[in-house]
Amino acid sequence: MKDDVKDRNAPQSPARRRLLAGGAAAGGLLGAGALGLSGGLKAARAATAPAAADSLPPAVPDWTRYLGAGVDAHPYGMPSEHEAKVVRRSVEWLTATRESSVNFTPLYALDGFVTPNGLCFERHHGGLAEVDPAEHRLMIHGLVDRPLLFTVEDLKRFPQENRFYFLECAANSGMEWHGAQLNGVQYTHGMVHCVQYTGVSLRTLLKEVGLKDKAAWVLAEGADAAAMTRSIPLEKALDDCLVAYSMNGERLRPEQGYPIRLVVPGWEGNTWVKWLRRLELGDQPWYQREETSKYTDLLPNGKARMFTWVMDAKSVITSPAPELPMQQEGPVVIKGLAWSGHGAIKRVDVTVDGGINWQTAQLHGPVLPKCLTRFTFDWVWDGKPALLQSRCIDETGYVQPTMAALQEKRGVNSIYHNNSIQTWQINENGSVENVRLG
Amino acid sequence: MKDDVKDRNAPQSPARRRLLAGGAAAGGLLGAGALGLSGGLKAARAATAPAAADSLPPAVPDWTRYLGAGVDAHPYGMPSEHEAKVVRRSVEWLTATRESSVNFTPLYALDGFVTPNGLCFERHHGGLAEVDPAEHRLMIHGLVDRPLLFTVEDLKRFPQENRFYFLECAANSGMEWHGAQLNGVQYTHGMVHCVQYTGVSLRTLLKEVGLKDKAAWVLAEGADAAAMTRSIPLEKALDDCLVAYSMNGERLRPEQGYPIRLVVPGWEGNTWVKWLRRLELGDQPWYQREETSKYTDLLPNGKARMFTWVMDAKSVITSPAPELPMQQEGPVVIKGLAWSGHGAIKRVDVTVDGGINWQTAQLHGPVLPKCLTRFTFDWVWDGKPALLQSRCIDETGYVQPTMAALQEKRGVNSIYHNNSIQTWQINENGSVENVRLG
C-alpha cells in the first residue's frame, strides 16, 4: 500500500520535485523585504508578510503519506476536531435553571450571514421538547369559519416559501444596559442567528380556516413544558409570517421547534413560538405572562413599554472581539454583522477611534430584508490602542443609536431591545475589551 | 415538580380549556365536507383535508408534561432522531475502494437552496485528509515575481469574499448515460451541494505574488494522499475563484478540504481542489491524470472532449422522487433544484405528462449566479400514472437538453457532464420510478 501511495504521489513536474525535496515546514515570517504590496497596506504588511517560498519549501506533510478515511466514516458530517472550541455556550448565573436558559451563538468564529444549524442560539422556557412529528398536530381555531387540525404532512402539501431571516431574542445585549458586563461577543450579541427557513405562509393557513370579521389577533402556543404563548396582531400574521418546517435545507432542529415553529420576520424571537401546536383567532390580545411580566420595558415614569415587537436596526463587530485578540500589527479584516427588523441594511460605518472618524464598510450581498448582513472593513493596525465601533443604517433611514440616546428615552431599567452601538477597546498588547463609551 | 408543570400549563382562556379537555390525538381525515378550498385545489383537497378541529381536539401530549433537556445538552446541535435516515449515502459497487468514492447528498429530503454542511456530498480520491491547520501552508510559485508561503492565518488577513455557489461533480448523473440506472434522486443527482463560501479572492493572492508575463495557467494541488492536481487557465483564476476557509459561516468541514480549498464557481467539482497546498503558475496546462485519463468524454469519432470545465444548466425534481412516493391524491408541492455554471437560472418549466405540456414553476429567490435555485410547482395529483420532468433555462438562453440530444452530439461513451432532463414516472400505487423517455 505504501508503494502505491508513493507512486501516486510521484512528482510530475520539475517545480513539484523542487517542492517535495524541501525540509520541515517551520513556517514563519521571512523574506518580507521582497514583498510588493499595493497602497496603504504596504508598510504594515512588510513586517508581517507570508514567508518567501524559495527559502522555506514545505515538506510533504504526514497527512499526504497515508490514505484517509473512506466515505463511510461520516454519514452526517461534523466540524474538524481543531474547531472543537467553536460551540454554543451558556452563562451559569444568567438564569435560575438550565431548562430555562440561553445557549449563545459563537459569532466571533463565524463568516458570511448563514448560521450553521448546529450553532444557532437556543432559548428555552421549559427545556427542549421532544416532539414526535407523526403525533404532532397544529390546531387553528377561535374566530374562524372552519377550525382545523393539521398534521405536519398536511402543512407540507400547501404552497411553500423559502426565505432567509434573522432571529434575535429581545434580550440580546440586555445585560449591557448596566455598563459593559460581558466580555465576549458570543455573550453580548450571540442571541441571534440567521438561516433559510422553509414553510407555509401563515396567510395561506388562515385563508384555509377562514377568518370571522371580528378576528384581529392570533394567539400562538407551543407544545413545550412552558406552553409558550404570545399574542400577534392579525396584520402581521397576514403579512410575512411562516409556519416553518425546515431551516438551512433540512428539518428544523429539535431545539428550534421541531417539527414546526412560527417565523415572525423582524420581530423579537420570543414570538417565534417553537413546537407550535395551536393558533387561536381572537378580537383582542391575551396579555400572557411573556408579553406583560416579561418582554416589556419599565420606563422612568413607571409605565412599561409593551408589544414592542420589532427589532430595531443593530450591528456589531464580531472580529476582532474579546475572544479574538489582535495577533500582530498590520492588515486585519474587521468583520461584523448588521440587521434590521424593519427591512434591509443600507449602510454600515466603522470607526477605530471611538467615533471621531467614521468610514463606510463593505456589505457582502445578497443584502436581504430582515436578514443578517455581513460587513467587512479592511484595516491596518499600528499596534496602538484603538476603540472599534460599528453603526448601521437601515432602508428606512433609521440610524443605530448610542446607549446614551436609548437611556435618555427609556431610562436604566430596561433589559430588552438594546440595539445600541457596541465598543471594543483594543489594548497595546492586542487584547480586546468590552467597554462603555456613552 | 409535576405540580409546578401543571400550574404553568394551567388554562388561561376558555378556548384553551376546551382544547385541553379533549381526548386522544388520533389524527385522521375528518370533516372534509366542511372545508372551503379555493380554485382548482378544492375538489382534490376535499378528500384529503386536515381534520376538523372541533371533532378532534388533541390531548395534551406527553412532551408538554415534563421539563425538556437544558441548554448544556447540545453545545453543537444535531438533527432530530426522527430524521436519522437523512444522511449522505454511498454506492458500494461504484468504486474500487471506499477511500476513492462518493457520498451523495440526500436531495429528496431538502428544502431551500442551502445544503447543511453535514449533508454536503463528498468525493475523495485518497480518503479524507486530516490536516493540522497550524502546520498547513499554501505555496504559490512558478512564473511569479515573489514565490510565497501562506499560513491559514495569513489568508484571513486579506480582504474577504462571501458568496453562494453550487459545487457539482462532473460525474453527477453519469450512470444515466446508459439508461435509467439508479433509483433515487440522492444517487442520480446527489453529487451537488450549495453553501455560502468565505475566503480570499485568488486574484488578490496572485496580485500579491506578482505574475510574470508568460503566466497563463495555474496548477492547483491538494495535500491529500491523492495529491489531486488540476490545471486552470489564468483567465478563470483571475475572474471569480476563491481560496475558501469557511462554508455556511463555519470553517470548512474536513471532508470539504479543511482548512482551505479552491472554489472555482460554475466549474466541475474536481477542479475545486481540497486541502489546497500549492498553486503553480505556468505557461501551459500540465495534462494531469484527472484532466486526460479522467474527466474527459470519448466521442464517437475517437477523439475526447477535454477541459470541459463549465457545468451546463441542469435541473431535477427532488420531490416527489423514488425515495418519496406519493402518499395520497390531491395537492402536492413538486419541488426541485436548478443551476447553471454560466450564470443565473432564468426559468424552470415542469411537465407532468412527459413533455406534452409544460408549465412555468415558481423560483424562490434570491436567484444567484452559479448557485442552486429552488423551484416549486403546486400540483393536484389525480391518482393516475404521470411522467414528471423539469427543464431549466439560464440567463444565457441555454435550454437544458434531452439525453437524446446529448447522445446525438457525444455518443454513448460519456460519463461526465450529463445535464439532461430527468424523468420520474409516478405509478398508480404512488411509487416513483426512474425512467428514460428519450
UniProtKB/TrEMBL annotation, chains A, B:
Residues 307-423 form the Moybdenum cofactor oxidoreductase dimerisation domain. Residues 125-285 form the Oxidoreductase molybdopterin-binding domain. Keywords: Metal-binding, Molybdenum, Oxidoreductase. Gene3D superfamilies: 2.60.40.650, Oxidoreductase, molybdopterin-binding domain. One of its GO terms (molecular function) is molybdenum ion binding. CDD domains: bact_SoxC_Moco. Coiled coil: none annotated. Its cofactor is Mo-molybdopterin. One of its GO terms (biological process) is sulfur compound metabolic process. NCBIfam families: sulfite_DH_soxC. PANTHER family: SULFITE OXIDASE, MITOCHONDRIAL, SULFITE REDUCTASE. This is Sulfur dehydrogenase subunit SoxC. It comes from Tistlia consotensis USBA 355.
